[in-house]
Structure formats: C-alpha cells, structure tokens
Design a protein that fits this description.
90 residues; single chain
Length: 90
Amino acid sequence: MQNGVEKAHEGLRNTASFPLALAGEGEKVRIVHVKNSRMLQERLLSMGLHLEDEIQVVQRQFGGAVLIEKTGSRYAMGGGMAHKISVVRC
C-alpha cells in the first residue's frame, strides 16, 4: 500500500511532460508545449496540430523521427521537430 507521498510522486511521474520524440509506439499523448519557434508553430498549425490535441504515436525511428496520427490523419516529422514538442501521457 502506498502512502500519500508515494502517491503524489506517482501522480507527478504520470503528468510530467517529455519530448514527443521519446514517446513509445502506440502511445497516446497530449501536446502541452511547443518551443518558441514561429516556423515550428506555423508548421504544426498547417498540419492541424494545436496545443491540447491528443495524438497517437504510430511509429518511432532512431533519432526521434515519428509518425503520428490525429483523428485518422497521419503526419511524419523529423527528430528535430519532435524534440521541440512537449507531451504528456493520456
């Protein structure tokens, strides 16, 4: 049985953000932050991706490149872009 401190730490682990490039295949995540890069933000908007969107990692490549899916549409992005997008597990 966990005490209150252990439960609090578990909650923090479950909500801590991490780069999209580190999400596992099949994992559902929510976008919580995008680094301040106007070009990156415009690129994501052109793909229909916004803060708070839930996406699923379909495939992950060495170096951080990912293939993601949002509402039936799939998008590929390189590791550089995927490292600048912070997500949390859903």
